[in-house]
Amino acid sequence: MTTSLADVAASGATLRAFLHGLPGVDRVGADQRAATLGTRSIKTTAKAQAIDLAISMVDLTTLEGADTAGKVRAMCTKAVRPGSGAPKVAAVCVYPDLVAVAAEAVRGSGVKVASVATAFPSGRSSLEVKVSDTALAVAAGADEIDMVIDRGAFLSGDYLKVFEEIVAVKAACGPAHLKVILETGELATYDNVRRASWLAMLAGADFIKTSTGKVSPAATLPVTLIMLEAVRDFRAATGRQVGVKPAGGIRTTKDAIKNLVLVNETAGDDWLTPDWFRLGASSLLNDLLMQRQKLATGRYAGPDYFTLD
Question: How much is the pTM?
Fold first, then answer.
């Protein structure tokens, strides 16, 4: 990092000054650019390649109170072998108490295990609990931790508290990667999305993630655009690349391809790999598989052809 960026979190005042000194977001411009890029049409061979790329970027997710070990094992089997010659997904994402089940189910496959530690989805817990939750998930086999920021602290202007919590959770991750969930649907403004993105990256996030999927709106194209601009500008300023994960509300192949176009046109093709871009979803994979089969055979599969997750 440059000296100036290394020092921005020296105090609450310096961190506030930096975040509020970031350029403001032109809301109309962001909405229009996202809408324009969302109209790009991709056909035939390029579409087939985009579908396989999107499949390889999926974090296949189940985050319900009714989750069971059997449900997680079934999801992991699908993650490793989606079917029809499709590539495996990037990761499975589960609650911390099911990490060991998922880790055993995907062992040796290359599919990562992500876990939503830190009092997901509210983030309303003590730092001690968040750190312990993270450490236990990593010890159980999590390769990635998806943490939620304290939106109450952020919205009340206590940026240093949010920064210090991210730093502490990152330390508890050890070798695991840290995805920081901003919960953009609660941040109210695009300027706050940009500030939260920079705050998370300055604190050491390996990825910034839009949403928990439990709050609406979730992963909108303009919000993802702003976060992609942030990681692009952060790399230009620091030399460190950070990934982006839109999550929540991405259900169709069209949604996925719109996001891939957004990545290519905003951050660049350096981010067009599962190492730097993920799609958090539970129902998206089936639509990608159905569209993949349609391109290969000319016929849509029935709704019961693929497993329901």
Answer: 0.94
